[in-house]
Structures are given as structure tokens and as C-alpha cells.
Amino acid sequence: MGTAHSGVETDWRRHADERLTDAGYRRGGARTALLDLLDVQRCARTVLEIEDELRASDRTIGRASIYRVLDELEQLHLVQRIEVGQGIARYERLAPDHHHHHLACKDCGAVIPFTDDRLEDAIHRLSAGAGFEVTGHDVVLHGTCAACRAAAAASVSTA
Question: What is the mean pLDDT of residues 132-159?
Fold first, then answer.
């Protein structure tokens, strides 16, 4: 997956540029590179994964700069920080056309996105019943992925 900006602005990218300008942020190398990457990202990434992807595209940015830009974007509600367990946080863009939740493997750290209309309906029913207006949500289900379960079963059968 390349991170070079194709020149075709998505709604998220256009919105992000407008929000940053309105908040007084100037365009810069680190911010632009991170926006380019997030614009094509489809699921949450750790800072180390972001750093590796930027490096692979010949856009080396210091980790401190990545954290700083992600913090700015989070404060402007352009990205979401997702705690997946094991002290690991992942970041993904917040876009109205792209909403999903996550399954997080406690063994290998894999994060698998999922969508479920019934879950969304249940959240809306719950909030309406409580007279509560939900402005955002994320669900992270923790457990063990199929590959880790299979590996564990194989090691038990060979023991």
C-alpha cells in the first residue's frame, strides 16, 4: 500500500486540511506525510507501524513528531486512539463513511476490523432508552484469533 498522495482528495483529507487550517496549523512535512498515510489507511495502526510505513515510502519522520501530529489530529477529532490491550494504542482516521469496530488478539496482537448492523442498532436502542445522545463509540473485543488458537491446539497435541 503506497502512501503517496494521489492528488485526488478524499472527503476525509479535505475535511482534515480545513480543520487544521481553521485551528491555525500550517502545512508541514510531518503533518502532510501523516495525513497522506491516514488518508489511504483502512484500519488502526500503531505508531511503530506508522513509522515503518512512512520509512518504506522514503518519508522518514521522527517518532516524537508522529506522536505530536497524532495528538493534534485526535484533539481535532480527525483520528481516534484505540486501546487494544497489552499497553498498545492504535490510531485510525475518523470518517463518516468508514466506521467499524475491532477484534484484538491477546496473544499475537492482531487487530481485525468488523462491522455489525445489529450491534449498531443495539447501541442506538440502549442510548435512546437511557435518554443519552451518543456522539461516538468504538468496540474492542479481546480474545484469541483463529491462528493463535490453532497454534495452541497443535502444541498441545504434539506434547
Answer: 87
What is d(CA 30, CA 47) in angstroms, rounded to the nearest whole number?
Answer: 13
Cα(29)–Cα(69) distance, integer angstroms:
11
**Is pLDDT at 74 greater than 70 in this prediction?**
yes
- Rounded Cα distance between 55 and 59, Å, is 5
CB 93 within 8 A of CB 41: yes
Residues in the chain: 159
**Nearest residue to 67 (alpha-carbon basis) of 83, 84, 47, 85:** 47
pTM of this structure: 0.74
Sequence-distant (6+) residues with CB within 8 A of 95 are: 11, 12
Grid cell of 134 as nine digits: 451518543
- Per-residue pLDDT at 113 exceeds 80: yes
